[in-house]
Design goal:
three-stranded antiparallel beta sheet, ADP-ribosylation fold, 24% helix, alpha+beta, 93 residues
Length: 93
């Protein structure tokens, strides 16, 4: 069931993906949801699997206030269907 997210969540990806992400937002692609976490280091490790890592911040508080739904899994991973680019920022390259 939907849950109230923390103010900020993080997503790890590769720097090669940034242009597409900022054009289209974070898409679930072949997954059921976009995966996010409060743990920055975990998300950087996820980004390393895909190339040179970059850490993105997600303004989850504002997304939630704007009507987007979030779900929390048993292993503390946050899920949503899509993160539009206006809620994204680059934390670390």
């Amino acid at each position: 069931q939907p849950a109230t997210p923390p103010d900020v969540l993080y997503h790890g990806t590769a720097t090669d993906n940034l242009d597409a992400i900022f054009a289209l937002g974070l898409l679930k692609r072949r997954r059921h949801h976009v995966h996010m976490s409060t743990n920055m280091e975990t998300m950087l490790q996820v980004g390393m699997r895909h190339g040179k890592p970059v850490l993105l911040s997600i303004d989850a508080k504002r997304m939630h206030a704007d009507g987007y739904e979030f779900f929390l899994t048993g292993n503390h991973v946050w899920l949503t269907d899509h993160v539009p680019s206006e809620y994204l920022g680059v934390v670390r390259r």
